Amino acid sequence: MTHAPALLVRRITRAEHLAAIGERSAVSFLQTPAWGDVKRDWRSESVGWFDGDALVGAGLVLYRKAPRIRRYLAYLPEGPAIDWDDAAKQDGLQRWLDPLVEHVKGQGAFGLRMGPTVVRRRWSNGTVKEAFADDGVHRLRDVTPDETTPVGTSVTDQLTAAGWRPPPEVDGFAAGQPQHVFQLPLSGRSTEDLLRGFNQLWRRNIKKADKAGVTVTLGTADDLPAFHELYAQTAHRDGFTPRPFSYFQGMWDAMTTEAAERLRLYLAHHEGDLVAATTMVRVGEHAWYSYGASSTAKRDVRGSNAVQWRMIRDALDDGCEVYDLRGITDTLREDDPHAGLIRFKLGTGGEVVEYVGEWDLPISRVLYSAFDLYMKRRS
């Protein structure tokens, strides 16, 4: 039996990283060099996987320093971007991950965390709706999926066997990136197809916004203060802690400098009043709804539906395969505070996708345990 040649992981330039991303149909925006610029509290590094001289994979590694010592937690959010089909082959994961572990170890890492966008399971729109209607079903994990992928199963099994720690089962949103996301497939569909896929309430609200005269336009950096003011109002109303204005300013500068189409700001106005605003990120054939805000006043003109419909159509026109509405929780109870968010996303006719989630590998178990305890106390 012949073994595949060993791979090497080493630091690569920003240009090499962007070229590697350009070779793929989609890579998470959290794995772009620009995201390293956004996360200023972390040290960032672009790394590449080499098969001989050929660059065959890439990733953004963020390093978070432990208190009082020069050791780090290495983190690849929604990454790395490697050939997961190859990694899913029998004992294939070791070939890809062992050189990564050695690399970050050389950078002073005491632990490694990653969250591959490898799909493990999918639930159709109809399946999730039926689960919501069943009083005996409280969690998505208790619902039989419409699809379980061989790649996701193999990656999960191999990570477990290699001593990686799986994502915890929690109710609500956990720290880090979401394991469950809501996606609207766009491939091979027209705007008419998509509109027919919306539920009756969504179609009615889109028509209502249009009849009320809601207009949706693209914003510029000059519109960020207005967006942030509305976002802060939304945070106060919905009970979450808003990010500061400087965060969005940094995000805009970093991402639009890297690629003009990477980040867009959408503004929905009604008779001169800003009633909703959102940001959309795009890398290759994947578009993400990232942040949203809406006014408490004039809710009846349905600015939020109007701005989402505009983003979906733009993603379709840009040739995207997927419009991603990002995270949802695992809970399916009607009395759950996140039920309204899930129902809003369900109205688009999309599906629930479960990734393999964020896995941890303690490189130094003592330091990893101490850091884990420190972070739990902080939160």
Automatic annotation (TrEMBL):
UniProt organism field: Haloactinopolyspora alba
Gene3D superfamilies per record: 3.40.630.30
Record-linked Pfam families: FemAB
Annotated protein name in UniProt: Lipid II:glycine glycyltransferase (Peptidoglycan interpeptide bridge formation enzyme)
Organism domain of life: Bacteria
Family: Belongs to the FemABX family.
Statement: the UniProt record of this protein carries the keyword Zinc: no
Biological process (GO), any one: regulation of cell shape
Molecular-function GO terms, alphabetical: aminoacyltransferase activity
Coiled coil: none
Keyword Glycoprotein tagged: no
UniProt keyword annotations, A-Z: Acyltransferase, Cell shape, Cell wall biogenesis/degradation, Peptidoglycan synthesis, Transferase
